[in-house]
Every structure is written in structure tokens, then in C-alpha cells.
TrEMBL record:
Cellular localization per UniProt: Membrane
Lineage top rank: taxon: Eukaryota
KW Membrane (keyword) present: yes
Name of the gene encoding the protein in the UniProt record: CG15221
Keyword annotations: Membrane, Transmembrane, Transmembrane helix, Transport
One term of GO molecular function: transmembrane transporter activity
Keyword Repeat annotated: no
Transmembrane segments: 6-27, 106-126, 172-193, 200-219, 225-247, 259-282, 288-306
Name of the protein this chain belongs to: IP12106p
Upper classification of the organism: Eukaryota, Metazoa, Ecdysozoa, Arthropoda, Hexapoda
Species assigned in the record: Drosophila melanogaster (Fruit fly)
Topology in the lipid bilayer: Multi-pass membrane protein
Cellular-component GO terms for this entry: membrane
Residues in Major facilitator superfamily (MFS) profile domain copies: 1-311
Length: 338
């Protein structure tokens, strides 16, 4: 068997899910699921092990002695058909749009949609953009001049019949370098987020993205164009910041549904951007880049109104205090008793 490059690619793609499978198999089952299934003792054991791992103390020192489902609401155990599942999803989704949360939910969803629309929309067409820039043989040319000279629907009958396309491997070498840059940006975010704060970091990257979008109208050097486009595409990293802000905003009993909902909206933005943004760039490059700049300005404005986590000092619970552990399906009471 000839071990070609595409086989290596397939193995590389499969290896990551396999590593994830091994990692997941080492994790305990969620106590929320165990409790819904009526396995309260196992649920408590998982909570004790988490407590021991986080605190370094003995599991027997875990103050919660009993966990029980709160009565009321729709539970996973009540789902026996499609309509029951729809009713469960409805009851979990509606709280996201209560009056106290409506503005923030819409704001977060709008930000996620635009972020992934921009990032994925440009990234999907980035190899084509690199190929077109490479055809200039090192000549300094404005990006929009290159893109508007490209016919996105052009293809010869010979290429279609033979299914043979010349591939410039240097394009994918650049893509690998850019992917490494994304990892570095993530690490930088992780290091400075506690110093700058989530909102400040988010808005700072938006400002940097604005500068790069303006620069793309004027810079001609290949390296500078690639760097500017990389910074613009790296706005997708800000989606993680917005998700973190949303996680802190939603109460625990609707947190999982809130995260799923806003990520669904973000992925919808990625699908829309992947399908239309590239064609718009090749058809009307200059106006579209100015429109993208306006979108990032809107993002920065919306980011200013994102909810902030209130910093409050937590008091040590008394022996009769109750800690609430919330499930994806329904709230759980964890009774603290001695």
C-alpha cells in the first residue's frame, strides 16, 4: 500500500478525536446525570472526588451529605417522546429571554454571530487569497486590486474533466504558521486576561482589528497583508472571551442551555460568513472591507455593554446552609449537614 500524504492527513485528523476519547473516558460521569437517573449515592461520590481533587483534602471532609432533585419543572426523566423533548427544550430556553436577561442575551448572540461571521468567512477563503497574492511573484500590489482581478467562477473544461489541479504547497505552509500564531494568541489571552479583564481584552483586540482593516486598504507588501489578515481572522479567538462572559452571566440552572444557544448562533454566523463573505470580497473588495470595519466598530460598542461579573466576598456557610448544585435538566439541592 502506498502511504501517500492524504493518508497521513486522515491519520492526523483521526488522532485528535482518539485522544479526546481517551481523555473523556478518564473523567467521571456528571453527578447531575446520575442524580436524574436516581443514583444519588454515586452522584455524591463524584462530588466528593471533585472536592478532593480541587482542595487536596480528604473526600470525607466534603460538607454536603445528601443531594436531592428539586421538585417542579420539567425533568429529563419525564421525557418519553418527541413532544416531551420539545417541551423540555422550550422550558430550558425561555428563561434566557426573561426581561432581566433579554438585552444581554440578544447582545451576546449578536456579538458571537458577527465574530464568527468575520473570522470563518475570511478564513474559509484565505488559501485562495494567498494563492492570488502569490501569483504576483513578489510584486507589491494592493489586496483589493488582486482580489477584484480574480474570477471566482472561472474554471476550464480541461481541469473539470481531468480533475487535475496544480497546488502551491507554500500556501499551506503559510496556513500552518498562521495556525501556530492563533495558538500563541490564545496563550497570550490566557496570560493577560486576569490583568486586563475580559471586556477590556475583548475591546482592545477589536481596536487592533480595526487598525488592520484600515491598513488592508493601503499596505502592498505580501508579509504585511498576511499579518493584517491574520489579526482580523484572530477575532475568532474573542468568541471564547464572550463565551466566558456569558458563562458568568447566566445562573447555574440555565448556564448549559445558555452556552449551547449562543454557540449555536455563533456557528450559524460561521456558516453564513463561509458562504457569502468570500464572494462579496472578490466582487466588491473595497466596500466590503469598509463594511467589515463598521461591523467591528459595532462589535466594540456592543462589547462595552456586556455584563460584568459582580465581585462579592462569599461568606463561609454555616452548618445549616444549603448549597445549590444545578443540573442541565432541573435544579438539585445539596444539603449541608453535620
Amino acid at each position: 500500500m502506498h502511504f501517500s500524504s492524504w493518508r497521513v492527513l486522515l491519520l492526523a485528523n483521526v488522532s485528535i478525536p482518539l485522544l479526546a476519547l481517551v481523555g473523556i473516558s478518564a473523567l467521571p460521569e456528571t453527578p447531575k446525570y446520575l442524580l436524574v437517573q436516581g443514583r444519588g449515592d454515586e452522584s455524591l461520590e463524584v462530588l466528593r472526588s471533585i472536592f478532593a481533587n480541587n482542595s487536596g483534602r480528604d473526600p470525607s471532609e466534603y460538607p454536603v451529605k445528601e443531594v436531592a432533585l428539586e421538585s417542579g419543572g420539567v425533568s429529563l426523566s419525564d421525557v418519553h417522546g418527541f413532544l416531551d423533548a420539545v417541551r423540555l427544550v422550550w422550558h430550558q430556553t425561555v428563561p434566557l429571554f426573561y426581561r432581566a436577561r433579554l438585552w444581554h442575551t440578544l447582545n451576546i448572540c449578536c456579538i458571537q454571530f458577527i465574530i464568527y461571521f468575520l473570522a470563518q468567512g475570511i478564513f474559509m477563503w484565505f488559501p485562495t487569497i494567498l494563492d492570488e497574492l502569490g501569483t504576483r511573484n513578489g510584486e507589491n500590489t494592493l489586496l483589493c486590486t488582486v482580489l477584484q482581478g480574480f474570477n471566482i467562477n472561472s474554471s476550464s473544461e480541461d481541469e473539470a474533466s481531468s480533475c487535475s489541479v496544480e497546488v502551491d504547497t507554500s500556501t499551506y505552509q503559510v496556513m500552518i504558521i498562521i495556525a501556530a500564531c492563533f495558538v500563541v494568541i490564545y496563550l497570550i489571552f490566557a496570560y493577560i486576561i486576569d490583568y486586563m479583564g475580559k471586556k477590556n481584552l475583548l475591546m482592545a483586540w477589536m481596536v487592533l482589528t480595526m487598525i488592520c482593516l484600515v491598513a488592508l486598504h493601503y499596505v502592498e507588501q505580501f508579509a504585511l497583508v498576511v499579518i493584517a489578515l491574520t489579526v482580523v481572522m484572530a477575532i475568532g479567538n474573542c468568541g471564547g472571551l464572550v463565551s466566558t462572559i456569558a458563562m458568568e452571566f447566566y445562573p447555574t440552572h440555565i448556564n448549559a442551555m445558555g452556552m449551547c444557544f449562543i454557540m449555536m448562533v455563533g456557528r450559524l454566523g460561521a456558516v453564513v460568513g463561509s458562504n457569502i463573505l468570500g464572494r462579496l470580497l472578490f466582487a466588491s473588495c473595497d466596500p466590503i472591507f469598509w463594511a467589515l470595519l463598521a461591523l467591528v466598530v459595532l462589535l466594540c460598542t456592543l462589547g462595552y455593554f456586556l455584563p460584568e461579573k459582580a465581585r462579592s466576598q462569599q461568606k463561609k456557610p454555616s452548618a445549616t446552609a444549603k448549597a445549590i448544585v444545578t443540573a442541565t435538566t432541573s435544579p438539585i439541592f445539596a444539603i449541608n449537614s453535620k
